[in-house]
Amino acid sequence: MALLDLLGRRMTLRVLWELREARLTFRALQDAAETNPSVLNTRLAELRAAGIVDHQAEGYGLTALGRDLLARLAPLNAWAEAWAHKS
């Protein structure tokens, strides 16, 4: 349940989505996620503590655990897209 709590927090899924293809600097991630620095800083700290995101010289990115999480969420995304088209 701790994972669902983390994923349900404001902007968490958006941050993961924006990091799906490349590492981003804090500023680039803030712009891509369209959020404020306070929320982003908090989410990044939580995601880093959970081992889902890391920070290197090139910026923030998904860890192997984070990439695995996104792969496991992909079927949910496909379901959501199909559901959205039926509404």
Task: Write the SSE topology.
Elements: H1 2-7, H2 12-18, H3 26-33, H4 37-49, E1 53-56, E2 59-62, H5 64-86
Antiparallel strand pairs: 1-2
What does this structure look like?
The chain is mainly alpha-helical. It has a single domain, classed as Arc Repressor Mutant, subunit A (Orthogonal Bundle), CATH 1.10.10. It has helices at residues 2-7, 12-18, 26-33, 37-49, 64-86; strands spanning 53-56, 59-62. It has a two-stranded antiparallel ribbon. 16% of the residues are buried. The mean pLDDT is 96.
Topology pattern, helix = H, strand = E: HHHHEEH
Cα radius of gyration in angstroms? 13 Å
CATH architecture descriptor text? Orthogonal Bundle
CATH topology (level 3) name = Arc Repressor Mutant, subunit A
The CATH class is Mainly Alpha
Count up the helices: 5
Give a short summary of the structure.
With 87 residues, the chain is mainly α.
List keywords for this structure.
5 helices; globular; two-stranded antiparallel ribbon; about 10% strand; about 90 residues; mainly alpha
